[in-house]
Amino acid sequence: MNGFGRIWWRVLAGVAAGVVASGVPGGQAMAGVALHVQPHQRFGGTVNHATASATIAMACFGPTRPGQTGHPMAGQHLGIFIPEVLMNPRFGDTGAHARTIVARIVTTAARPIQVAVFTRFIRTGALYSATKPLSTAIALPCGASGTVVFTPMPDGAGAQPATVAVTFNGQP
Length: 172
What we know:
Elements: H1 3-22, E1 34-36, E2 42-47, E3 54-61, E4 69-70, E5 77-81, E6 92-93, E7 100-106, E8 113-118, E9 120-124, E10 127-133, E11 140-141, E12 143-153, E13 162-171
């Protein structure tokens, strides 16, 4: 290959790498490519695939009483994603400095509980997302409502958390 051919392939490879790194939808990136959480990035949160009105199944069997706590059932998860449609009041923004997104469960019964830390998104098809399992070791209400708050860290100008409303549902 002559010198011009080598330069052309280097330019083409650089453009392809730029498309992958920018997270531009429609780029010809391979599945599994990681995109780190970056400043000024819009993102959404999920609880068991839901972006709103999610349910967390609790290992609380039989009738529940007010204030009763239990543990989440196995197989549930939290996630983050880069939305295709950027405007939604529940979506967040990493602001000027964030490189991490911290998920916390907020209820009226206790202090917020940190349940996951995200540092990157993984490309699957046309979507960048990441999931983490919800721990079965934490104590949550058996029958109540709350919010999962996905907070960009460190905080900076323009930072805004993403939120997902949740219902804790004890099993019959």
